[in-house]
Design a protein that fits this description.
heterodimer, A: mainly alpha, 2 domains, three-stranded antiparallel beta sheet, 6 helices, globular, B: mainly alpha, elongated
Chain lengths: 162, 122
Amino acid sequence: MIRRIFPYPVLSVGFFATWLLFNQSVTPGQLILATFFGVTSPWLLLRLDVPPIRMRRPLTILKVIWTFAKDIVQSNLRVAKTIVASPHPPPSGFVRIVLEMRSPYGLAALACIITGAPGTAWISYDPVDNVVVLHILDLMAEDDWAASIKTRYEKPLMEIFE
Amino acid sequence: MTDLPIDIPAWAALVTAALVLFGSTLALIGCVGLLKFSTFYERLHAPTLGSTLGLWSILIGSMIFFSTSQERPVVYELLIGVFVTVTTPVTMLLLSQTTLYRDRLEGRDPLSENPDPIDKTG
């Protein structure tokens, strides 16, 4: 029964918090509206047959966000330096990585993280072999791209989503 | 927002100015990179400067400015940041998928030229 009312509890909480943040107030009226949208919006997703989302380990989530934030600052400065200072483009190219993660939400999060950070981009994904191809702007910036992405992002994301 | 109060503390004005200037400089460098890089896959990396650290420093500057000038915490910039961070990669993915598809149609698949793990096209 509770599943019928809250098919996606994580999303319900997300909608609730987003509504309150948008309106920047916690008056009773806004709380009622936030609850209304938090409860009813996920019902629309039921029609779309979205696979159930399950997130665990809030501490790991914070750790991933922190790693991502550090990565963004470092890679921004590195890419900015490359654009401004270096006369020749760095050796760029494609890197293939065999993943272990299968969760669609985990893969989506990984794709957003990799594409969001300057210097790395998610180019293609083969669901049969679970192989992802990345484009790296400066291959020299890291010794082992596959190991770096697997230990820093894939492992914690698997803990969260699988 | 025409009657913006400008009586904010000096430290807040300085920090806001520094953050906004830093963020817009990063966005500008990203645009320069867009012109400078020669292949599509390299150009893919340049605009993310403006949509990540550039975006966040402008947003944090905005939060400091409006929080100090309105004397209450203003944090909905966080939502802008989250939405841009989640949606920009989707655009990038669509662009790269389209390019890959076009390259393959034209018989020059960048991924199959060198089947070894790392191939250099630079």
